[in-house]
Amino acid sequence: MPFRQLPNTDATRVAALDAAALKSASTAPGDRPYPAALQTELDAVQPLFKEEVGDVHAALTQQTTATGQVETDFLALQTVVSHFIQVFNLAVARGVYPRTDRAWFGLDVSSQAVPPLTAHADVLTWGDRIVTGETRRNTENPTSPPMANPSAQDVETALDAFRTSSSSQTTAKDTYDAEQEDVAGLRPRVDKLIRDLWDHIEFTYREDDGPSRRRKCREWGIVYVPRPGEAPDPEDGTEENPELPPQEN
Question: What 3-state DSSP class applies to 73?
């Protein structure tokens, strides 16, 4: 015999509340198969929970967008920092700058190696060293040509963009966390309401035969599924779902 399957995701919780709200809207108060107090609770909880779940979806979208922008800006900064160091080293090799000028950027004066730039912290560190170091180098050596292609200003522009998008991502993450907490706080109230509604509805139709009772209950949002290995009952209109474990009779 099919068993009652209570909602176990926010999507199925919203669906259960929506179904009950829709059916109750077309049913006279005296004909509803549950007490008026549950209708009051349904009227309060259904739009609230639906809105909060929608806020979670919106916050996740914003976080995903922010994360994508961070990665775009990270790659841009990573590239310009790497190119700056490589081009500077080429200029040292041509005699444009003395090798000791590498020290302005915190680089090993005797090495042409590009430092690791794989982590976000790496590009922030070296980007800042380039911007600060080039300003100091030019101040101390005004006759020395400034770096170009890329310039320190190119690095600073990329650095500012990465910092801005990283800040936006942090804000988006905090918002997403807060919205998830709002939904989590409502779940116990929602689950109790759904269980109470379904208990009263099934009790009201308890004297009907199984298929008839389940058809009436489904109109109010109650979900029934076959037990594992059980053939669907054509009168129920159910579909076999062997992956779901029995939860309730």
Answer: helix
